[in-house]
Amino acid sequence: MLKKPQIEEFFARLQKANPNPRGELEYRNPYTLLVAVVLSAQATDASVNKATEPLFKIADTPEKMVQLGEARLKGFIKTIGLFNTKAKNVIRLSEILVQEHDSKVPADREVLQSLPGVGRKTANVVLNIAFGQPTMAVDTHIFRVGNRTGLAPGKDPLAVELMLEKRVPEPYRLHAHHWLILHGRYVCKARKPDCPVCVVRDICQYKAKTVLE
Ligand code: SF4
């Protein structure tokens, strides 16, 4: 497991390489961010962005989404996996936001997680990006990077999340999950990590690092 000074150095380097990391999902406000994250479960950000570009032009608030209705929403998102269930969830969560939350996305984990289609990871993404809370939204990339490197080993996403909360130094907390997602997506890839070009290769504890061929 990495030690504190190593973790400091790990994030200092990711920060230097990418000072202002951003997620890759497109959104216009906290509501469209929430919808985009719900749609992104088991789908690529690129496929979600393609579908939401025209969708958010006509439905960027809960009221407008409810007005659009489930059948027409399906027409916009039918290229995304699990679109039937996702359409149902988006309409239902929009109705709840209108009826119970003054049409606003609540900055509250419990309330967010009580909405249809919203799990812990989705709530963490929304709390982080829309409300600036230093949450760790552990997806498949962060889970892998946390375990491989020795940064935050854990048997499941929740264990990795709690470990990151405990171990990531304060100045890096807000952006930590973005750096780790991007690092996992583009460098520390699932099948074959790009260790020879990795900025933290001398810190990382992965035993099966790849080498230049
Ligand atoms: S050295 Fe390799 S395994 Fe370690 S973080 Fe970098 S890409 Fe991943």
Automatic annotation (TrEMBL):
Q: Which reaction does it catalyse?
A: 2'-deoxyribonucleotide-(2'-deoxyribose 5'-phosphate)-2'-deoxyribonucleotide-DNA = a 3'-end 2'-deoxyribonucleotide-(2,3-dehydro-2,3-deoxyribose 5'-phosphate)-DNA + a 5'-end 5'-phospho-2'-deoxyribonucleoside-DNA + H(+)
Keyword 4Fe-4S part of the UniProt annotation? yes
Paste the cofactor note: Binds 1 [4Fe-4S] cluster.
Keywords on this record? 4Fe-4S, DNA damage, DNA repair, DNA-binding, Endonuclease, Glycosidase, Hydrolase, Iron, Iron-sulfur, Lyase, Metal-binding, Nuclease
MF-aspect GO terms: endonuclease activity
Highest taxon of the source? Bacteria
Q: CDD domains given for it?
A: ENDO3c
Give binding positions for [4Fe-4S] cluster: 188, 195, 198, 204
**Enzyme Commission no:** 4.2.99.18
The cofactor named in the record is: [4Fe-4S] cluster
Q: Which residues form the HhH-GPD domain?
A: 39-186
Identify which top EC class this enzyme belongs to. Answer: lyase
So which residues are the signal peptide here? none
Q: What does this protein do?
A: DNA repair enzyme that has both DNA N-glycosylase activity and AP-lyase activity. The DNA N-glycosylase activity releases various damaged pyrimidines from DNA by cleaving the N-glycosidic bond, leaving an AP (apurinic/apyrimidinic) site. The AP-lyase activity cleaves the phosphodiester bond 3' to the AP site by a beta-elimination, leaving a 3'-terminal unsaturated sugar and a product with a terminal 5'-phosphate.
Assigned protein family: Belongs to the Nth/MutY family.
The protein's name is Endonuclease III
Native species: Dongia sedimenti
